[in-house]
Amino acid sequence: MHVPEPPQPLEKFGRIEARGIDQVPDAERHGTASELFAVWAASNTTYLYILLGGALIGLGLNVWQGFCVVLAGNAFWLLVGLLSISGPASGTPSSIVMRAMFGVLGNRLNVAFTGCAVSIAYEAINLCIAALAGFALLATFGIHPNLPEKLCIVALIAAITLTISVYGHATIVRLSGFLAASLAISVAVLAAYLAPHVNFAYVPHAAPHGGALWAAAMAGVTVIASGPLSWGTAADYARYLPQNTSGLKIIGFTVLGGFIPSILLGGLGVLAGTAVDMADPQNAFGAILPAWFYPIFLLVIITGTTANNVLTAYSSGLSLQSLGIEASRSVTVLFDGFAGVSLAIYALFVSDFIDTLNNILALSVSLLGPSLAIYGLDIFLRGNCYDGAELHDETRKSAFWYWHGFNWVGLAALGAGGTASLLCANTKFFVGPIAKLLDGADVSTLVGPAVAALVYGGTACYNSRHLSGQQNPPFFRTETEKNA
Fold first, then answer.
1. Which of 69, 100, 368, 370 is placed for a possible disulfide with 452 were both Cys, Cβ 3.0 to 4.6 Å?
2. How far is Cα 465 from Cα 482, in angstroms, rounded to an integer?
3. In the 8-state DSSP scheme, what is residue 113?
């Protein structure tokens, strides 16, 4: 008698992930919270954080002030950890969970800006950094690529990134451990060769004081915070975990996986700013690194930024699906990749990359901070109770249809937070009136999320039933509901 073989799991290393934004059923949940550490560590062992740390010295901060700013900006990893627990609770990605905050249709507006647009921008940033390192790597072998050859390098790096993203979650998880370990060893070697050149007593020639120092420090916090705030998609990588996985462990491994490399690399960037010219760091590092290690250093840049881009492209593909695009995740990832490559080519060959980088980072914080604050507060108010099946109901009968598909409470909070953030922003292309009153201090990173949370939470207290179409969240349940 022939016994049929059991069905193969849909989620497997080396197999293209079949699922997109659809809910992961309990039978397909697997893994442990500890695997999240390698996922986040690999994707955040990226050269971008060294650049951002070095930028703090460029703002006029000394070494110890730079370290403090790196710590303050990366405190937002705690919020990323909180967002991740909504993945196992709902079995869905972040772009679907946020329907609870903004409504089925209203969330498409939120995701279009805070999900798709920002993800594509960060993909372009990482691709630019990897491509510049690729150009420098060829130069070490006496090869100076012309424009067509440079375009081929950009295309090759993008192809590797998108291939891994298309294969999806299981492949990303399996590769993350190896990448995290190899990148950590390489960065340790880099730190060892950099150490003799570091000037811990370094004081910039035009070191700011008083209000100017405050302004420089807050600008630095905004720049550093752009890293963790870009990961509002944390639920995407935890949604395959069993629903009963410890929330504290999920938060802990997510936070540590992102926080540790961000702190170490940001701090390394601060130290590097005292030793090399961070306006042209790839080539400047070549002057202090031994000849045998310099090509490895450039490969580390390419590998780290590619690992970061893999997760970014993966989540962006899910975000495109949540906008209502009827295509598989593998197709939306490719569409997203084309947009990222186009923007990278513009930044590399048409515009000024550093200016483009600074503008993108400043704008992204104004958009992402309020959205993530609302998301985190909603998790707290609901006790992290999300019905994945209900979240996928896009009909008018959905509990998250609200008013014509829009939850104006969430959208009003997002608008208020975004407006407040812009009023407090100080960027190269825009200085808000509040920032001017504060002598240029950019407090958008703090004010935007605070205003969004106050508006959302305050409205919830006034009209708590907007948070659920079926019952009040734990904080606002009536005595009858509590005793039921």
1. 370
2. 15
3. I
Per-residue model confidence (pLDDT) at position 354: 58
The token duo for 130 is: 């990897």
Q: Which CATH number among 1.10.4160.10, 3.20.20.450, 2.70.180.10, 1.10.238.10 corresponds to the domain 26-364?
A: 1.10.4160.10
Q: pTM, whole model, 2 decimals?
A: 0.87
If you count them, how many residues does the chain have?
A: 484
Paired strand residues for 426: 431
What Cα–Cα distance (Å) separates residue 297 from each residue in 45, 70, 478?
13, 23, 60
Instruction: Name the token pair of 271.
Output: 């130290």
Tokens of 350: 């048409």
Measure the CA–CA gap between 426 and 445, rounded to whole angstroms.
11
Task: Assign 406 to helix, strand or coil.
Answer: strand
What residues contact 228, with CB distance under 8 A and at least 6 apart? 73, 74, 76, 77, 79, 80, 258, 262
Work out the angle at residue 124's Cα, subtended by the Cα atoms of residues 69 and 157, and round it to the nearest 5 degrees.
115
d(CA 344, CA 337): 10
What pLDDT shows up at residue 360? 63
Contact 39, 257 (CB under 8 A): yes
Alpha-carbon distance of 105 to 5, in angstroms, equals: 42
Closest to 97 (Cα-Cα) out of 390, 310, 368, 317:
390
pLDDT of the residue at 252 = 96
Ranges of residues in the chain with a pLDDT under 50 are: 1-9, 466, 468-484
Cα 247 from Cα 232, distance rounded (Å): 17
| pLDDT tens figures, 196-250 | 988 888 887 777 777 788 888 888 898 899 889 889 899 999 999 999 999 999 9
Among 43, 153, 152, 130, CA closest to 353: 130
Report which DSSP code applies to 62: -
* pLDDT, tens digit (0-9, with 9 covering 90-100), for 427-472: 777 788 998 888 888 888 899 999 999 999 988 765 655 454 444 4
